[in-house]
Amino acid sequence: MDMIWDTSIFLGKFLYYFLESVFYKIIPKKKKDVAGETVLITGAGSGLGRLMAIKFASLGAILVLWDINEEGNMETYRMVKEKEGVKAFAYTCDCSNRQEIYRVADQVKKEVGDVTILINNAGVVTGKLFLSTPDDMVERSFLVNALSHVWTYKAFLPAMMKANHGHLVCISSTAGVVGINGLSDYCASKFAAFGFAESLYIELRVLKKSNIKTTIVCPYFIKTEMFHGCTTKYPFLLPILEKEYVAEKVLNAILEEQTYLMMPKFVYFALLLKQILSSDMLFALIEYLGLDTCMASFIGQSKAGEVQTEAERKQL
Ligand SMILES: NC(=O)c1ccc[n+]([C@@H]2O[C@H](COP(=O)([O-])OP(=O)(O)OC[C@H]3O[C@@H](n4cnc5c(N)ncnc54)[C@H](O)[C@@H]3O)[C@@H](O)[C@H]2O)c1
Fold first, then answer.
1. Cα distance between residue 259 and residue 169, in whole Å
2. pLDDT tens column, 163-221
3. Ligand 1 close to Cβ of residue 123 (< 6 A)
């Protein structure tokens, strides 16, 4: 009897949420107002982080900018302050260091107040074949791309829980849902970031903290320094995304309180294929899409200065 009742409730909810999602596909959700919200962005000193900071500033949010690169972060600070009346605070913070995250977080709480929108965006990439990746670079990938999310949640989530108000944003990657050749440490750390954010999303729902929203973002390659040199074979299926486009989509997803955002749309389809195709069929698809060679001409962040030769990449 219980099972019949449970199943009826489940099917009722399923149908309701299905119709709701179809409705919102036709009529976009009302966007939330972020004026006066305190938005912390890690990795705000360049690329996507900088663009998101500029967009949030134009909506009247208070900005807290974190980056290990003081110069880049100050440049973002100057850019957001160009708009009159914007409140912004820049902090140099090495997100690979737990103690430093906690120290700077305490400083933010004292000087700015509670963070209500946390965007974990700082990221690093090694871009070497697995056996050529030094151990410290593997560790750095996990520390920055995944573990920093855990420490920032520990620092800022308690106040969100108390107020039952907030938004947690995880910038993962397509490499956080699909393994990509030449990106083993990056993929592993981005899968970890995705899993952590998704698990907390469920935990918060179970704890009935439904006003703390989560947005998990998985973009394919973006035209920033990070994956400089990478290629795509069929841009109409897997384009290298414009950073302005990605920043706008992320902003919209946050304002519409969307939980998952994959870009481009083909990634949703690829994920479905991953579940249903045989591994050989999947590998044929990987070759067809050029995902086996997309990292072959990788140059990456210029500051890293670690351009790999073809010989180095092949050394396994
Ligand atoms: N560029 C892409 O193709 C792509 C694709 C998918 C996902 N992403 C993700 O998007 C996010 C933004 O990347 P981006 O493309 O703007 O790259 P980016 O290199 O322009 O920005 C990354 C920022 O993180 C900062 N950072 C690095 N290590 C840090 C540390 N230890 N502490 C604090 N800050 C640190 C850098 O200084 C830089 O400002 C990253 O998480 C990245 O993994 C990027």
1. 9
2. 999 999 999 999 999 999 999 999 999 999 999 999 999 999 999 999 999 999 999 99
3. yes
Which atom of ligand 1 lies closest to the CA of 221? 3
Contact 246, 200 (CB under 8 A): no
User: In sequence order, which residues have a C-beta less than 8 Å from that of residue 13 and are 6 or more positions away?
Assistant: none
Domain that holds residue 70: 33-314
Can you read off the two tokens belonging to residue 228? 């400089």
Q: Does 245 fall in a domain?
A: yes
> Is 146:192 a contact under the CB 8 Å cutoff?
yes
> How many residues in the chain?
316
Cα 230 to Cα 221: distance, rounded to the nearest angstrom? 8
CB atoms within 10 A of CB 260: 17
CATH code where residue 58 lies: 3.40.50.720
Q: Is residue 224 part of a domain?
A: yes
Residue 7 lies in a domain: no
Under a CB-based contact definition with an 8 Å cutoff, are residues 217 and 170 in contact?
yes
Measured in angstroms, how far is the CA atom of residue 144 from the centroid of ligand 1?
A: 9
**Sheet containing 166-171: which strands, arranged edge to edge?**
88-92, 62-67, 38-42, 117-120, 166-171, 212-219, 260-263
The reply to whether 218 falls in a domain is yes
Q: Which are the catalytic amino acids?
A: 186
